[in-house]
């Protein structure tokens, strides 16, 4: 093989590589899009929208977790108001 043949083969391989890179970018974008869509549907069932009993619901608050929000005031400030 002479220099011209090697150069032509190199250009052809480079073009093929560019095409493969473009396809890879498209596949990566599609993969990210599909992962985002899948995350929407992942384990969003609870005892209200499925047949899971409330005691076996994995998304329910634990029994030692309070649902009340803190007011942000200290104990002393609450006592002084009384």
Spell out the key features of this protein:
2 helices; 82 residues; 56% helix; mainly alpha
Strand and helix layout:
Elements: H1 3-41, H2 75-81
Quick rundown:
This protein is an all-alpha fold and 82 residues long. The protein has helices at 3-41, 75-81.
Structure notes:
There is one protein chain. It is built from two helices and no strands. With 82 residues, it is mainly α. The model has no long low-confidence stretch (mean pLDDT 80).
Q: Which word captures the global form?
A: elongated
Q: What is the mean predicted local confidence, pLDDT?
A: 80
N-to-C series of helices and strands: HH
How helical, in percent, are the residues?
Answer: 55-70%
**What gyration radius follows from the Cα positions, in whole Å?**
30 Å
The low-confidence runs, each spanning 5 or more residues with pLDDT under 50, are: none
| Proportion of residues in β-strands | under 5%
Question: What's the story with the biggest beta sheet?
Answer: none
Helix segment count? 2
| Helix-strand category | mainly alpha
- The N- and C-terminal alpha carbons lie at a distance of 98 Å
Counting DSSP E segments of at least 2 residues, the number of strands comes to 0
